[in-house]
Every structure is written in C-alpha cells, then in structure tokens.
TrEMBL record:
This is Ornithine carbamoyltransferase. The keyword Transferase applies. It comes from Geothrix oryzae. Belongs to the aspartate/ornithine carbamoyltransferase superfamily. OTCase family. The keyword Cytoplasm applies. PANTHER family: ORNITHINE CARBAMOYLTRANSFERASE, ORNITHINE CARBAMOYLTRANSFERASE, MITOCHONDRIAL. It holds the Pfam family OTCace_N.
Length: 329
C-alpha cells in the first residue's frame, strides 16, 4: 500500500507510478466528498506556511482553501513581507519554519531552493512552481484529462506547444513518464528542451512505456492528439524576452485550424493559466502597441467547447489538498 506521510513533493520524478496514481485517486475522492458536503478535517490542528517569491492566483488560493477546508491554519509570506531569500540563508529560514509549521509550500525561481527547504526544515515541502518544474499543476491536469477524455492516461496523446523549455513543458514530460502517456513537445529548435531533462524523463518512461517526443513539425505532432496544451510564451521573470518569443512561437499558437489538424473532433484544450487569449491585460495591450501579438491561444479556442481550462483550474484545489493530506494528514 502507498504511504506518503512525511514526504516532500518537489517533483513527480521522486514518485513512483503507483504513488502518482494514489494522489490522483485521493484527489478524485476528496473532490467527490466536497461535492457531497463531507469534510473529515484531515489536516485538523496543522499549520502550513506558503512562501511566494513569484505571484500567484490559483496555487495560493488552492493551498489556502484546501488547507482551511481540512481544518489547517495557513500563513502567507511573500518576498516583500518576509526575510526569506533576503536577510538570511534559505537553510536558516528552513530551520526556523520547520519548528513552527507542519508543511511548507514554496514558489520561486531555482529548483535548488525548494530542495534546500526540504533538506533543512525537517517537514514536508511542496513545490508550488520553480523555473524548471510545476508538479502540483500536473496532478490537476491529469485529473482533468481523466474526467474529460474517455481513455486511460497511458493511451492519451498530449501535445504541449510553445515554449518547450519552460517549467510546464518539463513537468508534463515527468508526468507523462510516470503515467505512460504519449507526450509531444512541439516548439522551435531555438527553445529545445535541456537534454538532461529529456534524458531523465525518457529513462523514467522505460518503466511505464511512455513516449516523449520533441518536434517542430505542427501537422505531424498534433495528428491524433487527445489533448492540446499550451502556456504563456514568456514565463514569470522573462518578460524582457517577449519580442523574441513572439517571433519564435507565433507558428505554434493554438488556433481552431490546429485543433482541426488533430483529426479528433473531441480534442481537448488545456492551459495551466493565466492565459493571454485577448488584449485585455496591460501587458498584452502594451505589447500590441509595439506590434507584438503575445496571445499563445486564440480567444476562439479558449472559449470553445474543446476548452476545459476552468475545470482544470478548479482541480488545482482538489489535487493540492490531496498532496497536503497524503503527506501531513
Ligand atoms: N497555474 C498556476 O500555477 O496559476 P497561478 O500562477 O495563478 O498560481
Ligand atoms: N510557465 C508559466 C507557468 C505559470 C503557471 C510561468 O512560469 O510563468
């Protein structure tokens, strides 16, 4: 039987296929219970701290609501209002927080920081996004796929298009490897994934029969896809690269034409969000004035019947709750 008590959740690569399956099943179970109004206060009396060095809507709210619904207490700290990453080492912050809290969530830049927090705090640490991974997002994505695609995960073909060198691309590779999925990273050669990441994912894939491909051929990549997934073209902290990315990534924008090329009338569209699908935000407007269309997906696709992005966003909460319950509940 799977037991994840006391474990940190830094990357899916640390978890066996059975453990990933367990977390998805627990998520489904907690979601069903919430729908029925049943709460078992599985985190009663626990204290949780959320550290954010980058901004967030979904991840922060998922941790807060998930924790509170199970009876835990939450403290939110960002870089502006705490000493973390400024006046003392991560090791010292970890040692202090480990004495106050039962679990620590961290969102920031380097994966090494979340690893150091886990090493020195003595309590489970959960990765709420780094430059190279976003493991809680994958649980939500895969739960959503199971809800909307009538196939087991190991029969699903998922195409991630755009910046295939970012945290979502890598997290999806790791998730595919652990579930036996056929994942295609579709993007330009200039943004080719780190060979070490690809090699590690392909090594793990041997255990499940997963296939992880990298290509810049749109028509070949999307053929027969069950899921088309994209993300912003410039991640948090990379805003200065927007003009270069628009040039490189426009051929990989998700359009209705791309969905048609899958040949699958029921193809699903996923996006971790937040998404630029219109020019409503200040950033998109400014860039438009400079002649850059930063939309990674057309509004037509985003609002189509193919799009399950808001179910996916809701599932952040159920899956993050499951991670907390499994590790400290
Ligand atoms: N998908 C995601 O992590 O969203 P936030 O940045 O709003 O947390
Ligand atoms: N790649 C994006 C994901 C946001 C959830 C970023 O890191 O900004």
């Amino acid at each position: 039987a799977v037991n994840l008590k006391g474990r940190s959740f830094l990357t899916l690569m640390d978890f066996s296929p059975e453990e990933v399956r367990y977390l998805l099943d627990l998520s489904r179970d907690l979601k069903a219970k919430k729908r029925m109004g049943v709460f078992n206060y599985l985190l009663k009396g626990k204290n949780i701290v959320l550290l954010f060095e980058k901004t967030s809507t979904r991840t922060r709210c998922a941790f807060e609501v998930g924790a509170l619904e199970e009876g835990a207490h939450v403290t939110f700290l960002d870089s502006a209002s705490s000493q973390v990453g400024k006046k003392e080492s991560i090791e010292d912050s970890a040692k202090v927080l480990g004495r106050f809290y039962d679990g620590i969530e961290y969102r920031g830049y380097k994966q090494e920081v979340v690893e150091a927090l886990a090493k020195h705090s003595g309590v489970p640490v959960w990765n709420g996004l780094t430059d190279t991974d976003h493991p809680t997002q994958i649980l939500a994505d895969f739960l959503t796929i199971e809800e909307h695609v009538a196939k087991p995960l190991h029969k699903v073909k998922l195409v991630f298009c755009g910046d295939i060198r970012n945290n979502m691309s890598y997290a999806l590779m790791y998730g595919a490897a652990k579930t036996g999925m056929h994942m295609v990273a579709l993007g330009p050669k200039e943004l080719a994934p780190d060979p070490a990441v690809l090699a590690a994912a392909r090594e793990a894939a041997k255990l499940t029969g997963a296939t992880i491909e990298v290509t810049d051929n749109v028509a070949e990549a999307v053929k027969g896809a069950d899921v088309i997934y994209t993300d912003v073209w410039a991640s948090m902290g990379e805003e200065d690269q927007i003009p270069a990315r628009v040039k490189l990534l426009t051929p990989f924008k998700v359009t209705l034409e791309m969905l048609q090329k899958t040949g699958n009338p029921d193809v699903k569209f996923l996006h971790c969000l937040p998404a630029f699908h219109d020019f409503e935000t200040k950033l998109a407007k400014e860039q438009k004035a400079l002649g850059h269309d930063i939309r990674e997906v057309t509004d037509e696709v985003f609002r189509s019947r193919h799009s399950v992005v808001f179910d996916e966003a809701e599932n952040r909460m159920h899956t993050i709750k499951a991670v907390m319950v499994a590790t400290i509940g």
